[in-house]
Specification:
Blueprint: E1 11-15, E2 18-22, E3 27-31, H1 34-41, E4 47-50, E5 53-55, E6 60-64, E7 67-70, E8 75-77, H2 80-91
Antiparallel strand pairs: 1-2, 1-5, 2-3, 4-5, 6-7, 7-8
């Protein structure tokens, strides 16, 4: 058994019934589906950006189009069908002015 701190998780990628958990320094493969991992991580606001990838929005540095730059300078591509959900999730944590110019 290996303990992985949730805040250290950059993203999780699935391969059939296995997932690989990526941190800035390590990766761990385990026998669980992405759907099961996503359900477990729901309280931590992880968001699905592709049918086989969920990301920790706390580690997103920038989003440009469908490219997501994570804290370790790794780029993940978001699928068109998941971009709206990603935008909604990220916009919840943005400081946005309500003033009109």
């Amino acid at each position: 058994m290996i303990r992985v701190l949730i805040d250290k998780i950059l993203y999780i990628e699935s391969t059939t019934n296995y997932i690989t958990i990526y941190t800035p320094t390590e990766s761990y493969m385990t026998y669980i589906t992405l759907t099961e991992a996503e359900e477990y991580l729901k309280p931590y606001d992880f968001v699905r950006v592709h049918k086989s990838i969920i990301v920790n929005p706390k580690n997103i540095k920038s989003i440009e189009g469908n490219k997501i730059l994570l804290g370790n300078k790794l780029t993940i591509l978001a699928s068109p069908g998941y971009r709206k959900i990603l935008s909604e999730k990220v916009n919840q944590s943005l400081l946005i002015s309500k003033r009109r110019n």
